[in-house]
Amino acid sequence: MTSETDGQDKPRTMAEHLAANVRRLREQQRISATDFAERLAKLGAPMGRMGVQRLEKGERRVELTELAALATALDVPPIVLILPLGEVPTVELLPGKVVDTWSAAQWFSGRRRLDNEGKPRDEWSHVRIYEEHERLVNELGYAHAEAELWPAEEGDPERKAARRRARVALRDLSLTRAAMQRRGMQLPAVDEDIAALLERQRFTWVPVDDWLALPAEERRKLRPVTFNDDNDDQDETEE
Question: pTM to 2 decimals?
Answer without folding.
Answer: 0.66
